[in-house]
Amino acid sequence: MSYKDKKVITIGIVSELTGLSERKIRYYEERKLIYPDRTKGGTRKYSFIDVERLIDIANKMEDGMQTFEIRRQEQKMMKKKEVRDKMLRGQLNAAFNIRK
């Protein structure tokens, strides 16, 4: 796991890094655009990738996109990635003559 994937940043720091209010960050979580981890005490923890994602979301919102459009776009990208990964696995299996 890369340091960018580790969820160690609190919402206050994320707010400072992104310029977004804590309320707006929580709203993006409610809209299923970001998924922070929670400590046993309920504190949200974010990664550097989450910070980058929040900046991307904010930019898209400024450009006039709605949260449902951002989520739909993300789902399409994930679907394409799944298909690409499946194709690559098939090509590797064929190249190395791996049978399941």
From TrEMBL:
<keyword id="KW-0238">DNA-binding</keyword>
<dbReference type="GO" id="GO:0003677">
    <property type="term" value="F:DNA binding"/>
</dbReference>
<dbReference type="InterPro" id="IPR047057">
    <property type="entry name" value="MerR_fam"/>
</dbReference>
<dbReference type="InterPro" id="IPR009061">
    <property type="entry name" value="DNA-bd_dom_put_sf"/>
</dbReference>
<keyword id="KW-0678">Repressor</keyword>
<keyword id="KW-0805">Transcription regulation</keyword>
<feature type="domain" description="HTH merR-type">
    <location>
        <begin position="8"/>
        <end position="76"/>
    </location>
</feature>
<dbReference type="InterPro" id="IPR000551">
    <property type="entry name" value="MerR-type_HTH_dom"/>
</dbReference>
<dbReference type="GO" id="GO:0003700">
    <property type="term" value="F:DNA-binding transcription factor activity"/>
</dbReference>
<keyword id="KW-0804">Transcription</keyword>
<dbReference type="Pfam" id="PF13411">
    <property type="entry name" value="MerR_1"/>
</dbReference>
<protein>
    <submittedName>
        <fullName>MerR family transcriptional regulator</fullName>
    </submittedName>
</protein>
